[in-house]
Amino acid sequence: MEYTIDHQTTYYYPDSVYESYTVLHLQPRSDQNQFCTRYVVDVSPRAKLHSYTDRYGNEVQHFAILPSHDTLSIVTHSNVVTLLEHDPPEPVEATRTLLENDLQLPRLYDFLHESAYVRFTSEIESFWHELESPGEYIGSWCRNISRHISQNFAYDTAATTVRSTVNEALERRAGVCQDFAHVMIAVLRSAGIPARYVSGYILSGDSNVLGADASHAWCEAYLPPCGWVGFDPTNDLIINDHFVKVAIGRDYKDVSPVRGVYRGSRHAEMSVNVAMDVLASAQQQQ
Fold first, then answer.
1. At what angle are helices 177-190 and 138-152 packed, to 10 degrees?
2. Domains of the chain
3. Low-confidence residues of the chain, pLDDT below 70?
4. Over the stretch 207-228, which tens digit does the pLDDT of each residue have?
5. Alpha helices (H) in 192-280, listed in sequence order
């Protein structure tokens, strides 16, 4: 599938701000499952963009605006081709034995331990009582964890904020895709399974799809012999060709789509609009 993605983030300041510095994780990745054919960033007020590749292979842009301004608009335009199957197979062949003998395991330290948003707390320990033991077949177990979160947590944009912890999501049994991804990551890591946070987009072709109105988030687990396998606990899906991956990290803090600092107003309002569309067949062929 080939998609066009327009992502607009606008900040409104009641009082003018100045010396603003902004970092973007908005460029879709190119890897064995997808490739980004076009990526353009428009910033208003105008600013010179600088780019670098971070420790996880994400393409990052940053810029500074020194003069005073009362709005900041960031618009990205992307074209992405996805190569995954629409109905990917479940990783039933993944086992604990294969994971423990995998030569890559020592390099996955970051995805096996705690991070800013992922803590092994007593609440996570209590949550374990609801879950079956992972046993030998960890691929099927990961699928069951995704399903359990999807069925037992309510999607509620008012329940949490971008700074909410795993404990808050567990206590309220509610949140958004970021929270559900963090919960699943915490469970998998505490079970000795490498897990990482993924930001991106999901096609909203189905009215029942949750999280398509802005950036989406899900979890990837390292499951030999399958490698990294994506699970979306918000929609209880294995990641397929309807998902576009933007960035990977330990948790949301590593890959927040837009973050920054500035001098001036203590408050700001933010609006985010995402439009993800499938290119017509003729355009895809061209």
1. 140
2. 2-82+255-278 (2.60.40.2250), 96-253 (3.10.620.30)
3. 206-207, 211, 280-286
4. 678 767 789 999 999 999 999 9
5. 252-255
